[in-house]
Amino acid sequence: MAQQNLAPTLLIGLGGTGKDVLLRIRRLFYERVGRDGMGTLGYPIIGYLLLDTDEQKLDDLAGESLPPFVGRSIRFTRGENVPEAIICGITPNEFNEYFSGGYQTFPHIFRWMPSEMSRLTSIALSNGAGQNRLFGRLAFFRHYRTIRNTIEAKLDQLLKNAADPTHRQRWLPPGMEVDLNRIEVMIVYSLAGGTGAGMFLDVGMLAREIISKRFQGTPYITHYAVLPEAMTSAGGPLISEEQKAKVRENAYACLLEMEYFAQRKEGLFDLSIPPKPKVTDFEGGLEPIYEVEWERDNPIPIYEPPWNACYLIGSSNDPLVGSPQPYHVIYQMIAEHIFLDFDLSDFGREKRSARSNLEDQLQLLYKQEVFDEEARPLFPRFSSRRFSAFGMAQLRFDRDRMRRAAGHRLASLLLKYWSRESDLRPSIIDQYAREDLGIPKDRKLATQFTPTLLRTEQGSDRQVVRLAFEAIYQRLAQKGMSPDDTWGNLIRSEHQKFLGQIESGEFSFREDALLEWKNRHINQLKPTNPGDMERAGIGEALRTSSQNRDRLQTEIEGRLERLFYHRISALGLRDAYKLFEQYSSLLQEENQMAESEQNRSSGLTGDWLERLREAHRLPMGFSRSAVRIESRNAVNAVLREISNYYRKMFSGDIRRCLGLAQQRFTKDPRMDGSYTGVIMRFFDGLKMAQDYLEARFRELSDRDEGLRTAKLAPEMISKKIGRVTALIDQQSEETYDVMIAAALGSQNINQVDWADIESKVLTELSSSGDRRLGGVNSLPDLVLRYSPLNTAKNAPPSAFDEFARELATACEAILRNKFAGNRTALEEYHRQPDQDKLLDNLRTYSAPYLRRNQAVNVDDANVNTKQLLGLARYDSTDAQRFIADLRRSGDRDPLTLAGMQPLNMNDDAIILYREKAGIPLCYYAELDDLGRLYDRSTRIREAHFDYAYLQGRLPEIRVIDRSKQPKLINSLELTLFGIMTQRITCDFDYDDQTKRKFKFCPIGGLEHPLGGHLEEVVRRLAEQERYRNNLSEEVVDWLGGKGTDQNGLLLAVLWAALRVFQDELLERVQAIVDRNPSKAERQGEHPLLKILRDRMIRKVRQRLENLNGGIDHIKPLLEWEEILKDRDQTRANKQKARENWNNYVKGTFRLLNHDDLPIPVILQPNPGFNTSIIKNKGTVS
Amino acid sequence: MPLIRWVLIATCLMVIFPQLCLACSHENTNSIFNWARCWCLPRFIIWIIASVVIFFVSHTWLFPYLLEQDRPNRIWPKTAMGWTLAIGWFGVCLTFVAIFGWISDELRPTPKGSSGLIPGFPGLDSHIVWIGILMIVGLGGGFMITRLFRSRRGSSNA
User: Fold this and answer.
1) What is the tens place of the pLDDT at every residue in A335-382?
2) Which of A83, A285, A1071, B58 would bridge B88 by S-S if both were Cys, CB 3.0 to 4.6 A apart?
């Protein structure tokens, strides 16, 4: 038995059902696996494509209301280069264009689209195909090129991902391989609707065609066809009886077509008229099953059925008869079935293998004997067995999901920790702000103030950039590279020198010295080109100031960034935010100071010179002391003038520096570059992430309960009845908090060391593959990644969702192996009080969801049943006890569990999976009811996807009813007689030969319509005893009355017509035999020929023989037949005999048509028939 | 030198206004060294020494003090000198009144009290005129000095 590896897989959903199932698959992957690094839900070898004609409710799940965040996470991408969903709508204009163009313009469409479909409103197509299969198919044709390109691109991408070893390492466990030689396509749809049922065959054919032509791998196409009962049963979405009838007709038509594609019908014999052989048949070429023309003048022959495996899924199984499951439960089961195909355990591997290992079963045929009235076998009828069914039930508690829920809860609590309210007093905030910026309360102490913060970080307070006015001024006034070499220090040292000279008496009154001192410095500042301060002509001091400013701005940026990092790390986000607000206020005050400095007059007109002169002029001893004092005052005044001038000239640069710092702390959220804004925006983002996490947590923690309660009556919930039984009840937030605290080693959640959790989470985040989170070391890092400083916009909401997911994943990683790690599904099961009920549940709900027709032979139909039991460590004592219990409970079950294969899988679930492969369509219990509706339908042409081609080729798929079968054969005989004797007439539409109307016209009675094709007429007669009896009387009357006129002349014509019909059939059957000799040999004689020969021809001949002279009418014909049969006769003689035969019967009957209905219809015998007999009598030797 | 100049001025005034000098109530004391004599030498010596001290203090302390005041309207040097001299002049006058008035009982209160111009100071009834004149001279002279030695720049904003 082959062990099946994973293969690149494209999941295609068609219509509403396909959409729903695909969304559920995406949710399962999202919940249990998450997104991969490339954004794919699940694994990168899985692609999704939805084709739907209805754009509305594209993100909704039936029977459940998805939380918005889950909807966002799993919804299909549209409108991208390679979309996940294509809306195949057709606008009213396009619709009208098609129908006004008609066959002339769109022959490839109107080959199969009846023109009368234009009567249906085109509005139906813009909001779905409205249960009209042909509209679904029209939508596929309309969007064919887009669909084809998308499928090609998706397969390309999947193969590329599968072939890339670096991608594989990320998700593929050791020992698991990806099979690059196999390309899987899974198509999910409902047979009841319009879109899915209208395009599933085309999509299957297209997928096979693309893979065969463009890719190296072998296509393996699996169909999941949901049967209509889920839709039409009570509680289903369809309410009106008309709609229900329509979808049932559609479904039966689909099943007929599927059977047609499943077996090459031309190789099989039944009661239908074999198709006319084509010329190619005789050249040994294989006739295609179908020829599809998606684009005009580009026909593509189809040789294989559009699937390898096809699951038929009803709404209930045999044990559940009378209790159909809601359709969304069925959708969920299909989703889980597909999801488990990607399970990496032994169970998943075996499940994958089952499908391909059972493929041989699908090639077999199901044989039913058809008997005549005397219970003699008339012929064997063969049906394909290309269909499968499955059922799956689980007992689970889903630890992964609980852990994910706990991860989300922990992440949510961590976000609350990050958003915690401030508990610092305003005075402390002010103190911190002043320390950080170097702005003391007592401004006179500014120069002595040294913030400790950066001294410890930088190692030297020389590098501290304080953000007070004076501090910035000192840094701008730096003259050389040394921090001491500033213009301020130079001035001060010169000032001290002057004072020293004055005190020591060395300095006599020299105004020129002071003036020189002052002018020297003013000139350092004075722009040589006053109109352009920025150009090279500015004074030396100013030039150095500008250069220093550039350097200082970088330092300020760095300093502020360090403050941002330090304060958020030390105080948390809320306190840091308040602190930054305080920064903003303080910096505003400093900026106002700089502004007033800038606006102050230059102050260069001091009176120190006049005062000095006056002091000198004073009399007596006053002069000496006044000059000394005034000299000192003059030196101080000049110093102030120079300093003020420097401050004034530098204040522009100071303001720029302060402005930069202010900008970094502005509270205006529209401004970019603000750390305050960064935190504000990050809070907004945190809120989004918080909402996401809380809602996700609720969703995850409610899911078991949701699965159990959805659409179930309360008494069923209490009895734990359902396909999926939760082993653990819904857990409250408090319970989760207790479990999380225990996993983290704390008594309760309030005692958790959040700083430690933060550190661990950040470590986890930094190693995540997320682009934004790579290398994140601290909370401030995180803040800046999601709320960047250089833009006023946050990362998009999707990024915060992504962040929340990553955070939850990181938290989950912290809880790994600690949270609920000691619980297993088996242990939980053993704790349950009602174990027998659970076992019954498991068995009952896992039976394949296709109810068996009781008339079908069980031994023949149950060809192969695969039963897999997935549970962890199945060889353990507990597991063996469970298996024994399950087997014991199954002893009472008609669907025995013998052959059930236990397999290892995750320890949080026990899954019983049962699959039947090789099922014929007649196995389906509802088929007869569907067929009955179909037979009565007046819209059969609209129910089929290409009725023009399929009519006459469609097989009988229902089980043979032995009580009705003889009536069927009798009806066939009657029908043929009726047509030939014109008791049954057939009206043709001369514009469209496919439109026919058979009518029974009793003499003197009203016409009774009998259907549009031969098989239908036969079936209707078999069912309608009154018609059958009437027709039988009419035919018997004809045979015994009109037919016996002129010695049975018309009977003779009838005999000849039957012989001609027999010859035509022989020729056609011969072509089949030539093409399929082995198949023909197995089937024996063709039943129609047998009926013709043994019943009809024999009956007519007997009547002729019983009439006096009756046999004489056909004697020449018999003689010519002898010549034709005689092998010794020359070819010329045979040809002559054939010509005579033809001439003899010429004009006595006509064929209904020469293609699918070569049934002769008796005309009035021409005079020649009789004459010929006389004339030719005795001339034949 | 300035002190000598002031002494000469005072001597001239005494010669010009002998009545003022004869206002002393104890004319019967002839010894110039007798403290009780109105215009005795010790009183003059003390008065002169006090005047010197006053001017010295004004020059060495008051004048720099006024100049060094760091305030918006800092006083100009010449104005400061005027204020220094004016205060010195007023101090000298005040000292003269104190020495000559108080020691000669005019400004000394009687223990029992008495009625008169100023109760308790009966001596003032007869000497209030010259004391008043001297105080006016002191204040007026001081004012004149400040007006005389005033910088034309006025107050400074330096």
Assistant:
1) 999 999 888 888 888 888 877 777 777 777 888 887 777 777 777 778
2) B58
Q: Which position has the token pair 């032995």?
A: A962
A772 close to A689: Cβ distance less than 8 angstroms: no
CB A11 within 8 A of CB A46: yes
A609 touches chain B (CB under 8 A): no
Q: Rounded to an integer, what distance in angstroms lies between the CA atom of residue A1069 and that of residue A940?
A: 28
Q: Which residue has the higher pLDDT, A789 or A2?
A: A789
Q: How far is B81 from chain A (nearest CA, A)?
A: 7
Range list of β-strands (E), A293-350: 300-302, 309-313
Token pair for A1085? 């004689």
Q: Does residue A79 have a pLDDT over 80?
A: no
* Helices A1014-1023/A965-980 angle, 10° precision: 120
Rounded Cα distance, A382 and A264, in Å: 11
Q: Which of A610, A622, A644 to mutate to test the interface with B (most CBs of B within 10 A)?
A: A622
Domain ranges of chain A: 9-371, 400-419+678-815, 438-665, 962-1176
Q: Where are the domains of chain B?
A: 40-148
Q: Is the ipTM of this complex over 0.85?
A: no
- The CA radius of gyration of chain A, in Å to the nearest whole number, is 47
pLDDT at B105: 59
Partners of residue A610 in chain B, C-beta under 8 Å: 153
Q: Closest partner residue to A615 among B74, B77, B157, by Cβ? A: B77
Q: Where are the alpha helices (DSSP H) in A526-621?
A: 540-571, 573-599, 608-617
Query: CA-based Rg of chain B, rounded to a whole angstrom?
Result: 19
| Residue B4 Cα, gap to closest chain A Cα (Å) | 13
Place of tokens 């008594």: A747
At residue A369, the 3 state secondary structure works out as: strand
Total-model pTM: 0.64
| A608 and chain B in contact, CB less than 8 A | yes
pLDDT higher than threshold 50 for residue A456: no
Q: Do A852 and A858 meet the contact criterion of CB atoms below 8 Å apart?
A: yes
* Contact of B100 with B110, CB cutoff 8 Å: no
- How far apart CA A450 and CA A466 sit, in angstroms, is 8
Note every long-range contact of A1100-1105, with CB atoms under 8 Å and residues 24 or more positions apart, other chains counting. Answer: A1100/A1039, A1100/A1051, A1100/A1054, A1100/A1055, A1100/A1058, A1101/A1055, A1103/A1039, A1103/A1040, A1103/A1043, A1103/A1044, A1103/A1048, A1103/A1051, A1104/A1048, A1104/A1051, A1104/A1052, A1104/A1055
Contacts of A606 in chain B (CB under 8 A): 158
Contacts of A633 in chain B (CB under 8 A): 67-68, 74, 158
Q: What is the pLDDT of residues A1014-1048, one digit of tens each?
A: 877 887 888 788 888 888 888 888 888 887 877 78
Which alpha helices (DSSP H) does A862-943 contain, by range?
877-890, 927-936, 940-943
- Are the beta carbons of B67 and A619 separated by less than 8 Å? no
Q: Which of A606, A614, A621 sits opposite B77 (nearest CB)?
A: A614
Question: Domain A9-371: which CATH class?
Answer: alpha beta
Q: Who has greater pLDDT, B12 or A38?
A: B12
Name the minimum distance, in Å, from the CA of A417 to any CA of chain B.
Answer: 57
Q: How many CA atoms lie within 13 A of A269 on its CB side?
A: 29
Mutate to test the interface with A, among B79, B81, B85 (most CBs of A within 10 A): B81
- Secondary structure tally for chain A: helices H, strands E: 47, 20
CB contact under 8 A, A611 and B84: no
* Residues 6 or more apart in contact with residue A318 via CB below 8 angstroms: A847, A851, A852, A894, A895
**Integer Cα distance of A86 and A146 in angstroms:** 8
Cβ within 8 Å, pair A614-B59: no
CB contact under 8 A, B158 and A607: yes
Cα dihedral sign, A304-A306-A309-A314: negative
